[in-house]
Amino acid sequence: MTQTARGPVHVTGEVLASKRVGAYRHLTVAAPGVPERFRPGTFVALSTGPGRIARRAMWIHRIKPTGGYGATIELVVEPLGPGTDWLASLPAGARLEVTGPLGRPWAMPKEAVSCVLVGEGYAAASLFPLAERLRERECAVTLVVAGADEAHLLSALEARRSARAVTVVTGDGSIGRHGAVADVIKEVLDQARAEVVYAAGPHATLHAVAAAAEQAGAWSQTAVEVPMTCATGLCQGCAVPVVGEDGVGRMVRACTDGPVFRGDRVRWDGLEAQG
Amino acid sequence: MSVHLAGLTLPNPVLVASGCGGTGRELDGFGAFEGLGGFVTRSITVGAGRRRLAAHRGDAVRPGQRGRPAEPGIDHFLATELPWLAQRQVAVLVSIVGRSLGEYAELARRLGRSPGVAGIEVNLSAPDAPGTQVFDVREPFHAASVVAAVRRDLPRDIPILAKIRSDVVRVVESARTVLDAGAGAVVVGNALPASMPDGRPGGLSGPAIRPLVLRCVVEVHAEVPEAQIVAAGGVADARDARAYLDAGATAVQVGTALLHDPTTATRLVADLGEDR
Questions:
Q1: What is the pTM of this model?
Q2: Which strands form B59-63's sheet, in the order they lie side by side?
Q3: Quick one: which of A48, A95, A265, B196 has the most CB atoms within 10 Å?
């Protein structure tokens, strides 16, 4: 009685593998019920050890069919604090509570249109399964992968396999273009004749992409990350200021009303002000 | 396992605490709504507002509320949340909080007329009341005036649960005065005023406050034996719940633990059932 057929599940998962890739840890986790319900853009909430109540939300990077366990999920963890450090240190065989998949997924275009996908840091994780789905729909996919340096570029090699064109941007110029997403996004959108833009990363990057998409006349979707305590819609802690269809501003929950929002609906100034 | 609480008959003594069960729909998504002893809504206010929550180490510390108290506002609640709750087989207790006695009376009037409201929980223990414009109830006398105002405007068959602060020094006095003012039971719990590591005000809840709340339950039960007590503070498993019930509580509320595992309350119902 712990779950409904379509809703998220709360299960005890098992870490099958943990691999260091650049600055990140890629965790392969068996979490029965989660892969079957996964759609690109959804995420899981993880417990982070005994004594810690608040959970950590992680993008699902990919679903992998693994013999013996059924499908598994792959997560990208950047150790940034006690919770993520704990997750990154989990050995194969460790168990952890997994809730998901949570949140509203990326919306898919009905027709084969030109799509630009922008991912910065570990947040790029959710764009790879999206790119696959878009290619299945015969959309032209252009990827922008960004990070502070080479170690923080997520799966840039894989990006070249899943997209028609890839632009790599690093803050220190160690690889690819030197600078920020904001510096290159206009050019990329123009070149790709983008009709739909998907972006995941820090707020400032999302803001820049949403603004550039607006100028280019493209739809934008942004995956807004804010710290979450429960990630299941209960605590009301992950407020995002948006403008509704009715033009009225309101606060909504990133975890259940998002994390994917239309870029032109988010009040970016309000989001950046609330820190 | 059914319990009688302030005139209500509940199928079991496990309630979802205010502010920790969302609108109810989120729990339902996990199949964790039906079967509860009762559901307490987040605190409903006259106007709409917002609040934020952040985590601190093992326990939950919520930063103080900015601007107006919080939450969806009574209009939105009556239009969209209550109708859904009313269709469920779970007793709905609506938590309310106001900036003035007039606001409390208005909330009582409007909720008293609405079908599906089993009871009212008056939130008299918001962790940082002074900064949030919530009606100041630090003195038990003021808390009692709120209960009396709500009682006047509420039909007799809808009981009031008064949620008082788990302050060991004053909890017995608080319980006595709110019961005299017309409350059918007291809820002992809620987050306690605390600070985030950077000094911002917040509320401390979860396992950290369990010993304090337990002491309050013991004291109230000893000094006011006729009082019905609902304990809310760090209940995460059947052992925690059992400790409160053994100390004299009629029921328990599960709060912070739900933020960690949304199935906590329904699991607790099952575990308590097996104990018997």
A1: 0.86
A2: B54-56, B59-63, B201-205, B192-195
A3: A48
Residues on chain A touching B71 (C-beta within 8 angstroms): 236
Q: Does the beta carbon of A54 lie under 8 angstroms from any beta carbon of chain B? A: yes
Token pair listed for B92: 């709905």
Burial class (CB in 10 A: 0-12, 13-18, 19+), B200: exposed
Give me the helix-helix angle, B171-180 and B140-152, nearest 10°.
20
Say how far apart CA A62 and CA A68 lie, in whole Å: 18
**Which tens digit of pLDDT belongs to each residue from A22-71?**
889 999 999 988 998 999 999 999 998 877 888 899 999 989 887 676 88
Q: Are strands A56-66 and B59-63 parallel, antiparallel or unpaired?
A: unpaired
Residue from A208, A58, A66, A181 nearest A125 by CA = A58
* Angstrom distance (rounded) from CA B125 to CA B137: 8
Q: Which amino acid is at A267?
A: R
Q: Is the pLDDT of residue B276 over 70?
A: no
Preceding peptide of A259 cis, ω within 30°: yes
In this prediction, the answer to ipTM > 0.90 reads no
A residues 179-198 closer than 8 Å to B (CB): none
Residue A15, helix vs strand vs coil: strand
